[in-house]
């Protein structure tokens, strides 16, 4: 069975709105991200990105979001959030402060129509006069949700006289409290198909009309029409009004402008269409010809498809528009005193990301949500004559991912993913690494730093110092003391009189305004005055000349470990060094740690000989509890940390790179042995430091072995996140105003100062290719380079003609330096890529498949296959070594060996051979049984798996002749076929040796098939079949599968239980992992998934089993063969009472026999594998 889980959730932002959903009259930003809603608080007093948008959380849904909107039901209460899903479940949510990620579902209803056609435009429209809500989900149909007064009366305000569009009595006031009941909704027939945009107009002041709807739609001939309708809420009818044709065929957007009319935004122009009186008819009467709406004015636009708009507050009649290429325009609508539009003026503000939504957060601050690139926070600068846009912040996105490749780490390093991301002007390569990234602030050329301490004393002559200990010396740096000249600007070395710089330091600590230094022979406390010539100095030395081996400090206490197993406690208060107590232990001390545990001070001590870990009370030096560590590796480090939720964890680092953690009871300082957890973080001895927040609580623990890992506590459990640093020997959190939030990391060659932005996300690094969009990518391990197929799209803003050009680039796989760039023919586009690596002859060749795109052709009829290799004679660069023309588009390529590759060309599959010198290409065998051969995978033993647009998967066998190379001498034979009607978009074998294949199809499902050998009774021969194994609804379009994993560390307890197999990417910017799990684990996790469905409440009354059910136009089937990892891992966040109910199940047969702690450990381990 396969376990599917997210590495990075969808980053495409499909919509964004601003509303007071959390707190009354305090706006927040709500962003729709496919199957979750990101909620971000807005601080308009902030001057930067961190100050404007902060405190985000996600509301996870078991469905794909089609549309969102908010409605204000009561003036003194927050707004309600309305959500429509692609499965046509409609529900309303209210914020819950105790469970922000699980809001209260106040109403939910299914509006699914079995025989209706799903509309391309899914939209929720709220009446500005708070009378109704419209939902457009199906062609030719509107769902009407009347808003009722708190007493249950409709706020329709209509009269029985349907001959008049205006009422004779006032409607409910806008301040009245309303009730929203989705069960009262009903359908109305809409006489308009192919709806492009739909809006509602407000009523004129002191004159309330029936709710007015304006629809932009197109007919079968592509003619765009603006149609007006009014809703009779009492009769539950939709009354048609006047219509007008729109000249701009590219019109897709309506903007309501007051009650007078709408702005129709097209590709080349904007025009205003006014609202004229309705020709209202009685029942059964034919439609009379009335006066058409009058087109008041019109203005030209720079050609581009406008995708988003927002009204600029404080600027009467001004709008901000954004087109698909990222062009931002200011639209100034000028009218007369009666509200009639007199002129339309546009002004080019500049370029940004391609928007899907624009939200005005303040007068000049705009949030731009994008599905084709990074979302942005932009400030408008109207006073600046040259630059009218200022980028305040950018929010990385991977969407849409068109292709990807996994680069496997060397020498134990973790692998990383390189994606072809973005579209239009926002395309780039993205390097995705598991864990957090470091924002580097400074780099110091200091070698062989062994340990570091950040000491702080606001009362002294310095704010914060960095003390660094080398093998035989000590240096002190002041990050806030600026210096210029040679060296590193901003980092200055200082001298503290009385502090020895000619010896190795074991500990540096501050107490009051005194600096304490511990060396192997003494403890020194000096006045913290940098310029003092006669410092106040106190000293302490061990008796009998014993060596100090370890030292730790907390507050005024300093604990020393001496030779022979003795520990000494000193008090360094007020510049004095006095002996407090001592304790003789059974053997020498291996590691010590001092910390606060509740209201007491404690020491944690580990011994060399017995691997015993003891908790000792300070200052009495009495033993409180102990624990014997199992295993044969010695304890090398200890750290006792209390997190923000007041839970204390003891971390024990072992010599083999393992980290063991315990919860320590703060009341009696005892080990909670059942809480013990072990994780393998590397192979080198573990060192640790803690990051302290402003509230003096531990926010995270940094652990270094082969690489750095950040450990935080979230949702009552420890969360491990890799930091992309390796070879770190020491690390410490700084106290510096010049480098706020910085951490110093020492390696054998340097000291780096940087800030870890987040310990909960993957690290995304963009690699710009200027305005080229990367479309396909392959990686050559031997050449240490990437081959990238690029597309550049330029639009003529006058004629609207789009000009495309393609190129192929070779980039270095570490520096991303462009090593070569080859332009393709005009109108030729790169379609596929593969790489031939010839290890025997130490050479690499890239294979590029293209298609010639002609506007008159529905399917490409010609293209090329190119061999691109380095010039062997001069080694000067890459060039086209050989090419062959093909009759169609080369949709996919795959290498079979160093001299053979296979190509999918329209409906055929052809195997090509290349010459020994890679200077010639010739076909070997061809198979023409596909509808559209869209993808290929080369398997062992000359087998090829073909993904078809309509015919799922087909297994082919290449039968070579002895000469292996003459044209037509070999043949491709169909061995087996999957007869399910899947439109395959990507697929891969579960593992290189597996007989099981996982595929993705256009209906957003995953499926698996397996090779099965059967006996044909008719022919008495063995045959191979592709047998259906599993099915699962992912809800996203998969664009690539890659063998491997991004994690570099595995929990040994999961060895043989779960193995990461594949990394996949989607068009929505998701990165996911597929793990192969054993039979027993599959059984337990399947039982857990079943019981969780029964117990856990779902947002919007959505059902997880419905969400993951395989669905297509022809069938809906329960998921099988897959475990929903994202859902399973919610088990780590549930309450104790829910855990008990989940373990018990619905009856005795559903009870899970494993203990909850054992099950929790398995799920935690699974979460670390992706």
**The CATH topology of the largest domain, please?**
Methylamine Dehydrogenase, Chain H
How many strands, what sense, and barrel or not for the largest sheet?
5 strands, mixed
CATH class of the largest domain: Mainly Beta
Q: Order of strands across the widest beta sheet?
A: 84-85-86-1-89
- CATH H-level name of the largest domain... which superfamily? YVTN repeat-like/Quinoprotein amine dehydrogenase
Give the second-level CATH assignment, the architecture of the largest domain: 7 Propeller
Poorly predicted sequence stretches spanning 5 or more consecutive residues: 157-172, 279-293, 483-489
Please report the distance between the alpha carbons of the first and last residues: 16 Å
Quaternary class = single chain
Helical stretch tally = 6
Estimated structural class: mainly beta
Our estimate of the beta-strand percent is over 45%
Shape: globular
Radius of gyration computed on alpha carbons: 34 Å
Count the strands?
A: 89
Helical amount among residues, as a percent range? under 10%
Number of domains: 5
Give the overall pLDDT as a whole number.
86
Domain RSE1/DDB1/CPSF1 second beta-propeller: 440-756
InterPro entries: Beta-prop_RSE1/DDB1/CPSF1_1st, Beta-prop_RSE1/DDB1/CPSF1_2nd, RSE1/DDB1/CFT1, RSE1/DDB1/CPSF1_C, WD40/YVTN_repeat-like_dom_sf
Protein name: DNA damage-binding protein 1
Domain RSE1/DDB1/CPSF1 C-terminal: 806-1132
